[in-house]
Design a protein that fits this description.
Elements (H helix, E strand, L loop, with lengths): L7 E11 L2 E7 L11 E4 L2 E9 L2 E6 L1 H6 L10 E6 L18 E10 L4 E7 L3 H5 L9 E4 L2 E4 L7 E6 L1 H6 L10 E6 L1 H14 L2
Antiparallel strand pairs: 1-2, 1-6, 2-5, 3-4, 3-6, 4-5, 7-8, 7-12, 8-11, 9-10, 9-12
Length: 203
């Protein structure tokens, strides 16, 4: 489990395809603290560390992960938001994030607010999935590229988030422009609430 509080961004140094899987080699400041089998969120996707060597580590993404996320868009040199799994005695500074990306969204607007930025993201809206909690609500939580954020101006197929300078500079939000594809994970609490309501509605 994660909190959506990105520790830093890692840099992709190599990409290798093996059948339907893709192996990503990355480097970041805490490589020496990692261990094999450890879970690390990459742009919000929970991936397992499978190899560590020479200040670098390797994670593998399977076909399903590549289809649901933007990891297949990555190129050598790209910056990836990374977060290690939560400690049970830690503070939940963001919200409950599973590292299971639901779908991608497209940045359709980036507005300089003279000190902060407003981003609008648009995603494929499915009414049946929305009934299951795959949606955003005003002042609710959403994870964008692994970053826990508060939703503003939620519409059926889009929403806005406001990014403070620290988050802009210390995550890969500073690389997001109109047309950039990002990963979304909708709030798990909303999914459970929707499921419970649907059970009562069918009785």
């Amino acid at each position: 489990m994660f909190s959506g509080i990105v520790e830093e961004f890692a840099t992709v140094v190599a990409i290798e395809k093996e059948q339907e899987n893709v192996h990503f080699t990355l480097t970041c400041s805490f490589v020496d603290e990692l261990k094999i089998d450890q879970s690390v969120a990459h742009n919000g996707v929970c991936l397992t560390v499978v190899k560590i060597f020479d200040g670098k580590y390797v994670v593998t993404a399977m076909k399903e992960t590549l289809l649901r996320s933007n990891l297949g868009d990555l190129k050598v040199g790209d910056k990836v938001n990374v977060e290690r799994s939560m400690l049970m005695n830690g503070r939940l500074d963001g919200h409950i994030v599973q590292g299971h990306v639901d779908q991608t969204a497209m940045c359709v607007a980036k507005i300089d607010q003279q000190g902060s930025y407003t981003f609008r993201f648009q995603y494929l809206f499915d009414r049946e999935m929305a009934k299951k909690g795959y949606m955003t609500v005003d002042k609710g939580s959403v994870t964008v590229n692994g970053v826990s954020l508060t939703v503003c101006n939620a519409q059926d197929d889009s929403f806005e988030v406001n990014i403070i300078p620290y988050t802009y500079d210390n995550t890969n939000f500073h690389t997001i422009e109109v047309g950039t594809r990002v990963n979304l994970e909708f709030d798990i609490i909303g999914k459970y609430a929707a499921k419970i309501l649907s059970l009562y509605e069918t009785k």
